Amino acid sequence: MARSRAAGRARSEGVSQLRAFLRSRACAAGGRATFRPRSLCARGGLACALAAGLACAPVAARAAAAPADSAASLAPRVDYLWVLRNSLIRAEDVPPIVERAKQMGVKGLLVQVVGRGDAWYHSDILPPPEPMEGPGRDPLGELLPLAHAAGLEVHAWVNCCLVWSGMKKPRSPKHVVNAHPEWVARLATGRSMTNLTQRQRDRMKVEGVFLTPGHPGVQRWVAAIVGEIARRYPVDGIQLDYIRQPGIPVGFDPTTRARFAMESGVDPLRFSHLPGPERTRLEAEWMLFQEEQVTAIVRTVRDTLQAVRPGLPLEAAVLADNDAAAERRQLWPEWVHDGLLDRAFLMAYAPDFATVMEQLERARPLGPEHIVPGIAMYNTPLPMAAAKVKAAREMGFTAVALYSYDSLFEKPGQWQRLESYLDTHEPPEAGH
Question: What is the reported pTM?
Answer without folding.
Answer: 0.83
